[in-house]
């Protein structure tokens, strides 16, 4: 079985209630970055569930954000995200667009019992705002980790010209049969070889501009 890279990194210790996909949960927020009338990247904020946060924070113990151990943990998380191309498929006018190899910034923070990881993925080639037709999805292909936007408010559009563009969140059309299959997988199981399970549960963000 092929193990998911996020699953390996988090080194999760699951209870008996966790014998179903997904095993970990991330609430996301995103802000499209615009400079000089061009889309240049996506600023993400990922809030990890308390169990996942506890497993990662255990290694940090009483470390603070400005200490080497904390910075090393943040760098390790970022390295794993980079290895999977930010877990994000980005399209402009129906054509897949690549991100730059390195983020412009990243940060690991505490928020009560949860950890928050934020970073900005920059596009290799900026996209003009005028006439933009953008779609992107952020997901774990094997669905070990559920990565979702809680609602439309998680799409921060302050930098997007509202009179020119519309940003919307689209939920996946998941059948009961597919949902049952996902939830029936044990902790040590992966979906079938093509690993498209996560894609079928992925939300889609659309940005359409005049």
Question: Please, could you describe this protein's structure?
Answer:
The protein has 210 residues and is of the alpha+beta class. The chain has helices at residues 5-10, 50-60, 68-83, 176-184, 197-200; strands at 24-35, 38-48, 88-92, 95-96, 105-111, 114-128, 133-138, 145-148, 165-170, 204-209. Strands 5-6-2-1-8 form a five-stranded mixed sheet, with helices on one face. Strands 4-3-7-10-9 form a five-stranded antiparallel sheet, with no helix packed on it.
In DSSP terms (H or I, runs of 4 or more residues), the helix count works out at 5
Poorly predicted tracts of residues? 1-19
Number of strands: 10
- In helices, the fraction of residues equals 10-25%
Shape: globular
How many whole angstroms does the radius of gyration measure? 18 Å
Give me the secondary-structure category.
Answer: alpha+beta
Question: Average pLDDT across residues?
Answer: 86
Distance N to C terminus: 46 Å
Report on the biggest sheet: 5 strands, mixed
How big a fraction of the residues is strand? Answer: 35-45%
Taken in chain order, the helices and strands follow as HEEHHEEEEEEEHHE
Sheet with most strands: strand arrangement: 5-6-2-1-8
Task: Draw up the topology in text.
Elements: H1 5-10, E1 24-35, E2 38-48, H2 50-60, H3 68-83, E3 88-92, E4 95-96, E5 105-111, E6 114-128, E7 133-138, E8 145-148, E9 165-170, H4 176-184, H5 197-200, E10 204-209
Parallel strand pairs: 1-8
Antiparallel strand pairs: 1-2, 2-6, 3-4, 3-7, 5-6, 7-10, 9-10
């Amino acid at each position: 079985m092929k193990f998911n890279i996020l699953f390996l990194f988090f080194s999760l210790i699951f209870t008996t209630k966790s014998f179903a996909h997904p095993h970990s949960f991330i609430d996301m927020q995103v802000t499209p970055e615009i400079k000089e009338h061009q889309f240049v990247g996506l600023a993400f904020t990922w809030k990890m569930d308390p169990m996942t946060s506890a497993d990662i924070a255990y290694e940090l113990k009483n470390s603070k954000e400005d200490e080497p151990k904390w910075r090393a943990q943040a760098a390790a998380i970022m390295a794993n995200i980079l290895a999977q191309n930010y877990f994000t498929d980005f399209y402009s006018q129906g054509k897949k667009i690549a991100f730059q190899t390195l983020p412009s910034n990243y940060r690991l923070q505490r928020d009560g019992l949860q950890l928050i990881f934020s970073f900005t993925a920059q596009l290799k080639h900026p996209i003009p705002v005028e006439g933009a037709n953008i779609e992107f999805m952020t997901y774990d292909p094997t669905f070990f980790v559920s990565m979702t936007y809680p609602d439309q408010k998680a799409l921060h559009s302050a930098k997007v010209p509202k009179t020119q563009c519309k940003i919307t969140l689209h939920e996946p059309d998941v059948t009961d049969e597919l949902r049952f299959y996902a939830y029936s997988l044990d902790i040590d199981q992966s979906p079938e070889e093509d690993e498209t399970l996560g894609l079928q549960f992925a939300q889609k963000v659309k940005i359409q501009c005049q």
